[in-house]
Amino acid sequence: MNNLRFRIFISIIILLIVGLAAITLLFNYGLDRYFSDYQMQEEAANINRLERQVTEIYETDGEAAVFDHLEQFARINQLEYIAEPGNDHMDHHEAMDQEMMDNRWMRQGNGRRMMQSFEEADLSQGYNIVINDRDFGILIWPERDGQPAIYSEIAEQTANFRNEINSFILPLGLVMIFAGGLISFWLSRRLALPVNKLADEVSKLGEGDYEIEVPEKLSGELRRLGLAIKSLAGRLKYLEKIRRESAADFSHELRTPLHNLKSTVEALEDGILEMNEENLESINEEVERITTLTGQLTELVEFEKKLTDINIEIVDGSQYFSGLLNSYKKKAEYEKIDFNYEISSKLDKINIDKQAVEIILNNLISNAIKYTEEDGSIEVRVNLEDKDLKIEVEDTGIGVPEAEKDLIFERFYRTDRSRSRETGGSGLGLAITREIVAALGGNISLEDCDKGSNFIVELPQ
Ligand code: ADP
After folding, report:
1. Which end of the chain is less congested by CB atoms within 10 angstroms, N or C?
2. Residue 423 pLDDT grade (very low, low, confident, very high; cuts 50, 70, 90)
3. What residue owns the CA closest to ligand 1's atom 10?
4. Reported pTM
């Protein structure tokens, strides 16, 4: 069992045990405190009821009925009842040992104390029934273990209740720990597995392998983290690649115009060429080419600087894309090209790097405008398909010959068709776009369509 998983598992089990122990302790503490109080209150309510009853009986049927009722009550509740000594009703107790009765009576302190609540009364002295200042004697709880039986009864009931509940808690606790164990086993596996997979993927970076896969099972924040790492890896790969290739690419691209320039200038020097407008124009063109290239080199360097800032955000896709695409609509319509877009309604929460998506869209739509004739049309579709954000840019322009469909994504590659147009492209836009898309873990392709081109970008979500 790996570390993170084990820790999650153990944490949940410890949490369960501590929770159970806390509940048990609280329960036992609460039981001692409140259950005996509750029992005592029940008993007090019983006596209060008795007092109300005998008050009524006293008022309606007179004293003798009260004594009878108290005796009956004592019998039913297994209490002892001692009527006031000297009372006429004493003959009811003729069988009772007079000495014992007197002793109890003495303990009661002449039986003339003030009426007090049952809970406050010292029950070892019995409970004095006084109605309308008339003393009706004492109810005495039989003694057990040197105290009124009611106390030990309550203590016994509390203990029984506690034991019963505690005997439930142990097996219940075991079942809970077992069930908790199973759940935490499953949960720890579910949480730790994708994280470990991601960690394995990330560790590949150290070995120079930039192909990071975001585990399918990752969701929420972890998925965002995975995408951010994948994007970082893609960018690292890109930076590594351009570090290797840039110098070669640019020196290669510069060589042709510089060579042309050199030979033209030499020919002018040697008098082979005339210093006329045509030859000066050709020199000017080569200088323009070099200027454009160095300008793009600067752009590329600027862009690569930004590549290290990863910023995957959760964005409301509909709002974001409609804002962005509206600005291109104006641009296209200025070139007399019809521009339409279609945004799916499922894009309320998508994970994207806004800056990167803007560069991608800008390159694709600018190309579509550049390579589409007047009265042509451009359609952009944004959709969510199989966990991917799918962006399609379709135009009715000059299209790309089948054989060159892959080549156009290479740096500085331009098709002959485009070269014949005065578009001034450098052949860098699509190469940059492909690298950004790869950096985001996505894919770009040029699909067949009736007329023109259909570029499809898929970005993982
Ligand atoms: P640029 O457009 O600056 O030349 P890109 O890298 O953007 O460079 O494009 C490379 C080449 O791919 C272009 O020169 C052009 O030949 C071709 N291309 C790109 N987009 C389109 C398009 N929408 N329609 C036709 N050809 C295209």
Report:
1. N
2. low
3. 427
4. 0.51
